[in-house]
């Protein structure tokens, strides 16, 4: 990958790491707390679901960036 192409990859990777970390934190918070209200539980599950969707979207975008970079290098090589 070229230098200008690494910026978006690093940013997306860091966002994925932050989202994964938050998923683990929310899960740990609810495993420690004994009794929770239904609303709190629903909010936590919604947050975990949204963070999971975000992680999947980030992985998809990283895969697309990787394939875009490969196709550019193939064009440069004369394929």
Overall description:
The protein has one domain (3-77). The protein has helices at 3-32, 38-77. It is 89% helix and 0% strand. The chain is rod-shaped and about 65 Å long. By secondary structure, it is mainly α. It starts with a helix and ends with a helix. 0% of the residues are buried. It is built from 2 helices and no strands. Helix 1 (3-32) runs antiparallel to helix 2 (38-77).
In N-to-C order, the SSE pattern is: HH
Helix content: over 70%
Overall morphology: rod-shaped
The largest pleated sheet is described as: none
Structural class: mainly alpha
Distance between the termini: 18 Å
Number of separate domains = 1
Strand content: under 5%
List keywords for this structure.
mainly alpha
Give a summary of the structure in a few sentences.
The protein is mainly alpha-helical and 79 residues long.
Topology of helices and strands:
Elements: H1 3-32, H2 38-77
Helix pairs in contact: 1-2
């Amino acid at each position: 990958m070229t230098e200008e192409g690494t910026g978006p990859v690093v940013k997306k990777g860091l966002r994925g790491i932050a989202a994964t970390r938050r998923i683990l934190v929310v899960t740990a918070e609810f495993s420690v707390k004994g009794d929770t209200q239904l609303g709190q539980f629903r909010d936590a599950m919604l947050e975990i679901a949204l963070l999971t969707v975000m992680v999947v979207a980030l992985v998809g975008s990283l895969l697309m960036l990787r394939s875009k970079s490969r196709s550019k290098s193939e064009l440069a090589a004369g394929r």
